[in-house]
Protein 1
Amino acid sequence: MSPLEEAARIIARSRFLVALTGAGISADSGIPTFRGRDGLWSRYRPEDLATPEAFARNPRLVWEWYRWRMEIVFRARPNPGHLALAELERMGLLKCVITQNVDGLHQLAGSRCVVELHGSIRRVRCVSCSYRAELSEPPREIPPRCPRCGSLLRPDVVWFGEPIPRDALEKAFDLCERADAILVIGTSGKVMPAAMLPQIVRSRGGAVVEINIEESDITPIATVFVRGRASEVLPKLVELVRELVGQ
Ligand code: OAD
Ligand code: ZN
């Protein structure tokens, strides 16, 4: 049996399947990954940009970087990988997507249950008051200011050294404690606590199905490793699952 067929069987007979996604699932939507050869951070040092200290030191620089990322994200469309996950949810198999991505493409693809561990680049919030807003385009003025109190606005994302929003983290742990299978797609598995989630499923006897173009830090605990691009593997996987469950 090929790894793809094995993955399809695990998914078809699962009772509570969840997915953990990383930058790799959005790579084929044109959004650069973080740690690849042409990853964002091969050109920029994360500690210069994605930290509260960096923002305090130089909000303009951090905002220039986010404006550039926002321009890419607002132009991007979901790819067949995102669409396949939305389809698995409609088929009643996939219970929720837990994502480290901040691009909102799972929701645009039609996924209804999405847990955003690292926030969203489509939102801003005030550093001083409770003001929050959805964006439909990158801010024109850099750095943008709060319309309520005049303080700086920041992207509503999680930076290095900051905690994951509590409700998202609780939901992710709860899902993984209930899951008997997890699809791990396009993540290097280098950032905690996301990287712990497959381990939770595995330690309770669940299956870990990994899809990635190369081996990751999750691969040693994977039940099945399917090598390939998420945008190509996931649609094929859903077709095989459909044959197995007769939908
Ligand atoms: P990384 O950039 O660390 O890893 C991307 C992974 O996707 C790698 O394992 C690649 O092999 C794989 N990949 C690339 N293209 C792919 C494709 N077409 N199909 C399948 N896999 C592909 O990204 P993440 O693991 O998401 O956090 O990084 C985790 C977190 O690190 C990010 O959310 C971000 C960063 O710090 C914050 O900003 C808080
Ligand atoms: Zn404010």
Protein 2
Amino acid sequence: MRFAYVNGRFLPHREASIHVEDRGFQFADAVYEVWSVRKGRLMDSDGHFQRLERSLGELRIPAPRSRAALEHIISELLRRNRVTNGLVYLQVSRGQARRDHAFPKQRITPTIVLTCKRLDHAAAETRAERGITVITTPDQRWARCDIKTVNLLPNVLAKQAAHEAGAVEAWQVDTDGHVTEGSSTNAWIVTKAGKLVTRQADHGILHGITRARIFKCAQELGLEIEERGFTPQEAYDAREAFLTSATSFVTPVIAIDNHIIANGEPGSLALTLRGAYLREA
Ligand code: PMP
């Protein structure tokens, strides 16, 4: 049986629920975090906890549990669900209150939900060896993409557009014509000169924890990174392209908008970084 954790209790997954007037449900007034679990361990655990704390702080949602308490809940959840390879999902909403846009005047308790699931890392490995395809699509999101909120409708529509086009991911393009990031991944290219390029981490993108780890891996490998936007055209002409996220690690991109990247094979730097990431995170 699958279990979820809701507000202090482990419940059978199919019975786990929250109130209809939960502000996460009503307004997307909630943040979330996702950890990859590999061989029973949380990958990049600290980075994801730090980002969770920052997201909560930016929205003035009180932390519902200490980090130590959350670590304990997560390990119990993984144990009960017998997950050793997969992911953990955590969501914290401002809580439940009579529907009104402004924060409730009275103190309310944040809602906390945790679920986990198994993932087939072997299938992800095969996908990385083959490479994936992406499309580009307009970035239709709000101005605080650095906060990891559950306000994901533009991301949902972008991913759906990708799937309908037979692609795996959609790279979002801002009004200046630069790629910001994917719908659930950060976007990277390698220039002909061998430099890694990824969008600067301001309010326009999620500060990926995998992205940050790749900065460290790249430094150790003596690779240079330019933090700046790049256009779809620059990406079509790149030597390599790839994307990063907690659940896909580093995944080579072999075509963008039907333009084959280089010779259409996964790039060697992307694969090197994937290996380095899996050793370090
Ligand atoms: N950008 C967006 C919009 C995302 O949803 C994600 C996945 N959380 C990422 C980037 C990658 O972030 P991370 O490496 O922390 O998973």
Protein 3
Amino acid sequence: MSASPRWDTLLLDAHLATFAGAQPFGLIEDGALALHDGRIAWVGARRELPGAPHELAAEVERLDGALLTPGLIDCHTHLVFGGDRAQEFDLRLNGASYEDIARAGGGIASTVGATRQADEAALLAQSLPRARALLADGVTTLEIKSGYGLALDAERRMLKVARRIGETLGVEVRTSFLGLHALPPEYKERRSDYVAEVCEVMLPALAAEGLVDAVDAFCEGIGFSHEETRRLFERARQLGLPVKLHAEQLSDLGGAALVAHYQGLSADHLEYLSASGIEAMAAAGTTAVLLPGAFYALRETKLPPIASLREHGVPMAVATDCNPGTSPLLSLRLAAGMACTLFRLTPEEALRGVTVHAARALGLRDRGTLEVGQRADLAAWRVARPAELCYWIGGELLLRSWIGGTPVRPA
Ligand code: DI6
Ligand code: FE
């Protein structure tokens, strides 16, 4: 007669990259991991299991030597949008720059037009396949920004679609309100009216509807100034919402120091980040989100100051920046590989960047590592060692994944 098993599921025959503990990648060879009630209930070397597998768990699954990692977390995407910008890709290959196109009314503004035209069903239908593609390469949590509506109704529609993607796919979606992404054409001569509309009307309304998990802005010459961003952050603080920022992507406006001043979750892009920006981020504990897809697609040559971020102990996350203009990238695993090849992150840094540090960039403490008590968000891969996840360019490496203990890609 045996007592009823203490765990729902026990996973065996896997190597575990836990991103906890002192080993590189937090690696545990021939490990075991137990799931119970959607959480990780036990993790360790198989030989240390406190009993026979079938007595410990209602179900025992063998993963045939797979590598098990935390589910990947894409902490910066703009994947809800209408249309595409393949036409501008063509223009850029014929000599125009991203800024030329933006100033000529293309760029973000053209996606705003297509997004405003799409109703909720159309926007969902266009955006879902992109989210599915991310999930197919191991993502279990993703952030989605608004910022292609730039008017209350259209921003609301984007954020609702973001939530519906989460419900449809059973994945957790964190939303960021990016009303200060671009100046909408109807406000061309009235910048300060638009900033006021965003701060005093749109943000409070959308926050009250529960559609906003964080507040973001594009602090840039072609976006919004330091002062305009500061005004938004003041409003976010009053509403008790965390902030993050597109900072120092094309020039240095001191955005990183500004977001650090507001104890921001993250400063993102950072190619033009200054020494004082790094110090401010280190002091505030603001995560650096690196977006090698945009660096690649824009053929940027200025590298973010990786060595200095590393020296100052600033946590580095990596994300796709999935968007129609500067990063039509649908694989977070490939973003991690690009962070290695283009930015010289080590595979361990890049993989921490899409797990534990990405969780941090979203203010989430219950995921991103394989540790007891964490959400059972897991990915099992057909690879022998963690570096392979960054090394292979393309390929179907994901065997299966679990979100909150529920399998999403059955074998
Ligand atoms: N920085 C980016 O890379 C994206 N937004 C931003 O603020 C680009 C968005 C786009 O071009 O549609
Ligand atoms: Fe972005």
